[in-house]
Structure formats: C-alpha cells, structure tokens
Design brief:
30% strand; seven-stranded antiparallel sheet; 7 helices; 158 residues
C-alpha cells in the first residue's frame, strides 16, 4: 500500500457520522455503506465496497459539530473521493490528499451542486498550475468550514 497524507472534512447526516469513531482507526463497511447511501450512491454500494475492501484505514478522526475530519491513511480514499465528488450529492466534502509519488488532489462537493477535483502531478507530465489549482480549491471552501478547521484550510503552502 502506498503512503498518503491529507485531511478530509465531511458533512454527513448524524445517523452516518455516529457510525464513525477513532477507536478502530478505520471507516467500517457499515459506515462506508451509510456514506454511499447518504451520497445517493446506494445502488453502487456493494460494488464499491468490494473495490475498497472491508474498511478504509485512517490516522485520525475528529468530530466538530456537524463535520467529521478524517486523516486518511489508505490510498483507496483518493478513488473514493473522486467517485463521491463526481457522482454523489447530499453530503459535503472539502479536503485534499497527497500521494507519496507526487500526486496531490483537492476535493469539493458542496450542497449547491459545486463539484471540484483538482489534480496536481509534480512528478509527471501534468500541465496544471499548482497555484491555480490550490487557489480554486480555497475559493470553493465555505468560510464556515475554513473557520471550523483552520489547521486544514489555512494559507496554502506550495
């Protein structure tokens, strides 16, 4: 398994976030199914669960009000975030993941049908301007989310 680092802020229904805790250091199969159902992807949940395995490991999880902050450990989070942002609705996602091989991705899924996946490949042939990707991501994150998680959404570093 490749190493990743990052922070993901999820706004989920309480019935879903209550299934997530820091005790097991993973998002369980039950919680993953609940997240997919909340995002309107319930019909795909069985297939997606098979892709991601029984659970998604994380390095930490913290709840603040209606939000859950996850520090992902498993590289499967990158694909899960792409699927949720591309096809999901009804939940909110704000965050980014850096892969050990130089890829960074930023994700926004907001209630008002705002969907953003920013991709930077520092070791590949990526033409994306990292500063522009980060600026667009920062622009799309609501001020309330930034103020709730200043350690995640402070000034970007390049």
């Amino acid at each position: 398994m490749s190493e990743i680092t990052g922070s993901l802020v999820l706004k989920l229904p309480e019935s879903v976030s209550s299934l997530m805790d820091d005790v097991d250091a993973e998002i369980t199969d039950e919680a993953l199914t609940a997240i997919l159902n909340a995002a309107g992807l319930g019909s795909q949940s069985e297939m997606l669960e098979e892709c991601f395995g029984a659970a998604l490991e994380f390095e930490g999880l913290e709840k603040r009000g209606e939000y859950v902050l996850v520090y992902p450990f498993d590289e499967s989070y990158m694909e899960l975030m792409r699927i949720l942002v591309r096809d999901g609705a009804g939940i909110e996602i704000y965050g980014g993941i850096s892969h050990e091989y130089g890829v960074q991705e930023y994700y926004v899924l907001a209630r008002d049908d705002v969907k953003f996946i920013g991709h930077i490949d520092r070791e590949g042939e990526d033409d994306a301007d990292p500063a522009e990707v980060v600026a667009e991501f920062q622009r799309l994150v609501p001020k309330t989310v930034k103020s709730t998680f200043p350690e995640v959404f402070g000034e970007p570093s390049n």
